[in-house]
Amino acid sequence: MNNPKPPARIDRRRFLSGAMQTAALLALAGCDNLSRNDWFPSLLSKTETLTKKAQRALSSKKAMAREYTEADRSVVFPANGNSNPEDADYQAMITKGFADWRLEIGGLVEKPAGFSLTELRAMPSRTQTTRHDCVEGWSAIATWTGVRLGDLLDRVRPKPEARFIVFYCADPDEDGDKYYESIDFDEAYHPQTILAYGMNGQALPVAHGAPIRLRVERQLGYKQAKYVMRVELVERLDNIGGGNGGYWEDQGYEWYAGI
Q: Cys-Cys link to 162, which of 95, 104, 229, 233 (CB 3.0-4.6 A)?
């Protein structure tokens, strides 16, 4: 038997980053069961701030998620979550090809605005082939095309007190509550954060969030909100929904889901 090679040295930065990611994924992998325990949301709230600060300290605000080639795209990309919202207004939009859909952006902005799908497609676009990592344990690669969120925010001119961007979606849960998600300005202005209207060179399918979905590539899959209808800039999150910044966050998931 050949003598094994000595273990490669791992620098401190890579070790800490990997350890934090592993811990986060281990916690989230069983979140459906863990979130049923009274202590779990409290544990997440105490560790999330440390995780976010550590990850932000270890990587630049402009650090890019890895991008792939079209040859790397997955043959199957699962339609996670809701694949056809049972919402009357949304179903009516499907029958019209989303011709009367408009993305409304408001809240703490100087110039509230609405954009049709045609108007969004006419704006400068970004295309990126990235990997979607789901907390359920699967990953898939696809090509996304859309408008940079930062460009849209520049058009509406955020007010100084705005701290978060909230996305309101068309898909309801079993209780009729609509899905929502949120990110901060660091993620909103990241070059890879887009509102995607295209997938793999085609119009975004209904199963994957048509007419647009959020792609915030440096975070886990549940942050990639589908069926986005409205965007609101706010100063705080504790008075929205369950107060934790997103539908799944209200169930016990972490708000900051960096990978």
A: 233
H-run or E-run covering 46: helix 39-58
Q: Which of 149, 145, 133, 204 is nearest to 182 (CA)?
A: 149
Q: Is the pLDDT of residue 5 over 60?
A: no
Dihedral (Cα; 17, 183, 194, 140), 10-degree rounding:
50
Report how far residue 194's alpha carbon sits from residue 216's, in angstroms, rounded to the nearest whole number: 7
* 135-159 confidence digits (pLDDT tens): 999 999 999 999 999 999 999 999 9
Of residues 58, 224, 238, the one with CA closest to residue 164 = 238
The reported pTM is 0.80
Task: Show Cβ contacts of residue 176 under 8 Å, excluding neighbours closer than 6 positions.
Answer: none
Cα–Cα dist 232/167, whole Å: 7
Residue 90 parent element (H or E)? helix 88-95
In which region does residue 245 sit, left (phi positive, over 0), alpha (psi from -120 to 50) or beta (all else)? left
Residue 27: what are its φ and ψ, rounded to 5°?
Answer: -65, -40
Contact 219, 52 (CB under 8 A): no
Phi, psi of 42 (to 5 degrees): -65, -40
Give the chain's count of helices (H) and strands (E): 7, 10
List Cβ<8 Å contacts ≥24 apart for 20-26: 20/51, 20/54, 20/55, 21/258, 21/259, 23/51, 24/51, 24/254, 24/257, 24/258, 24/259, 25/135
